[in-house]
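Troubleshooting entry. The earlier prediction with glycinamide ribonucleotide gave an output that would not parse, so I re-checked the input for stray whitespace and re-submitted. Clean input:
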Amino acid sequence: MKHRIAIFASGNGSNFEAIVNAVERGELDCEVALCVCDKPGAYVLERAANHKVPTLVFKAKDYPSKRDFEKMIADRLDSLKVELVCLAGYMRIIGDELLSRYGGRIINIHPALLPAFPGAHAIRDAFEYGVKVYGVTIHHVNEEVDGGRIIRQAAVPYDGDDIDEVEALIHQTEHRLFPEAIKDYFKSK
Ligand code: GAR
């Protein structure tokens, strides 16, 4: 039986696409059961439609609290029997409701070598610091932001001064690493 995964994203969705492509090429024994997106109109939704992946789109402000929209999401994940949640540029902190119901089954991609440069602007922060080795981390999600156990990391050496160039290199590495980390996750089960 194929593993059922959900991918959460808020924007462009290039990592969503990389995972779906790996599934379609047969490199991952998974089915992408759902794309969850908190930004109506985000490009990831077009990508999901192109690949015929079902979507769950919501606006946080339509709910009285984070607990309420996370309950709605977790109920949908339950009904689809999702085994693993992949956060791929989902720019919200996961709250208690999802953590208590999906704890140990949520992984996140972060565009830096954690514990360096946590937070929402990791690439810019690393660039402004002047690092020569950037990187990507895939890690388990727990109550500590960008703090869970690391599954995979890769370094991205770059000694130039063009932030667009470094961003492109980091994305290339992300697109290779995320499918590998999903494979690692299921191998460890
Ligand atoms: C990725 O670079 C991901 O690492 C980052 O958002 C980008 C989403 O790109 N995530 C974070 O910064 C989380 N703190 P994508 O929408 O093209 O996949």
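This one parsed fine. The chain is about 40% helix and 25% strand.
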